Structure formats: structure tokens, C-alpha cells
Amino acid sequence: MFNRRENFSQYIKYYPVVSLIIALNILIYAIGVLPIVGDNVFNLGAGANFLIADGEYWRLVTPIFLHAGFLHLLFNMFWLYLFGPELEKIAGKMRFFTIYFFAGLLGNVATYLIQPPNYISVGASGAIFGIFGAFAALVYYTRNTMPQLKQTILPLIIVSVIMTFLQSNVNATAHIIGLLTGFIIGLIDFHPRRILNWRIKKKK
Fold first, then answer.
1. pTM
2. What is the per-residue DSSP string for 89-114?
3. Which of 94, 63, 95, 97 is nearest to 80 (CA)?
4. Residue 115's CB: how many other CB atoms inside 10 A?
5. What structural domains and CATH numbers belong to the chain?
6. pLDDT tens by residue, 135-147
7. Do residues 2 and 39 make contact, with C-beta atoms less than 8 angstroms apart?
8. Is pLDDT above 70 for 201?
9. Which residues are part of the catalytic machinery?
């Protein structure tokens, strides 16, 4: 289910939203390593709570597309590359983007509300955890029909949450709120009645 066997062109064709998000993150990171320009990109987009309090509300969104280093970018994009396509295929392009974006956004909003004014964060991990949360909702609805999904997703979520609190310099607030946001949206989007209605409409 999560084995990616598509070639480059097939991957872009089948999963355009995931591909676009990955490309955007890589592009922004590439700009961010340029001399002078890179510092400006990071300084203008990082989720600095004291600047958000001063009215720079775009910082609730821009951190989703910024990363603190190459390994930070690599790990987040690897998880998106691996797990994003299946969710985009199941949920559809717009619903997938809704899950990803709002998980990242609400993770940053919670970070602003909970963490101290001097707290600064960047990264797509809150949005990535939103993907995990959406799969958890799918597990809830398919627990009796798709046991293999449960066996894959639940251990991944448990380990990811544990590692969140064991590692340093990790925005645990964004991770947990992103996970819960994805789960709640998934419960709404993947409700059996809604899925049945989508299938009926597609046949008409």
C-alpha cells in the first residue's frame, strides 16, 4: 500500500498535490541557502511567536514550508513522499490538501497560543502528522475490513509520538495538534455515508 513503485513522471501524474508540495518545499529550501536572500526568507517566514503577536499572522502559514536544515527537509519530505500519495488517492486532491494545510496551520496556531513569546518554529511536521491522523481515522472506519492498514499505521503513529517527546528541538505542540486535526477531518471525510454518497454521484 505504501510501496512507491512509480517512476518520476508517473508519480507527478498520479499525485499532483503531493508532488507540488514537495517541489515547493525543495524550491524554498534551495532559495533559503542562497547568501543574503536565504536569511531574508527564513527571517520573514519563521513562526516567531512574538512577531505573530505583533500582527505578522502570515507566520502561522509560512513555517509549514520552511525547514531548519537539509536533514529536517529530507525527513519531512520522505514521509510526505511515502504516505502522501495513498491519502491523496483515497481522499482526493482538495480533501488531501485540506487535511495537510489545516493540520499544519492549526499546529502553528496552537504553538502560538501554548508556547512562550520567544518560541520560534519551522517545518512541515505538523502537516505530516495530519496525514498520519487522517490515516488513523481511516483505520477506525476500516478496522474490521483492512487489518493490514491498522498494523502499519498504528505502530507508526505510536513510535512517532514517542519520538516527538524524546527528541530535542521538536515542536511537540504542532505534532500533536496536527495529528488530532488530521484525525478529526478524516473522521468527517471518511465517514461511510459520505463515501457512499461520493460513489453514487460518480456513477451518475
1. 0.90
2. HHH-HHHHHHHHHHHHHHHHHHHHHH
3. 97
4. 17
5. 8-203 (1.20.1540.10)
6. 999 999 888 777 7
7. no
8. no
9. 125, 175
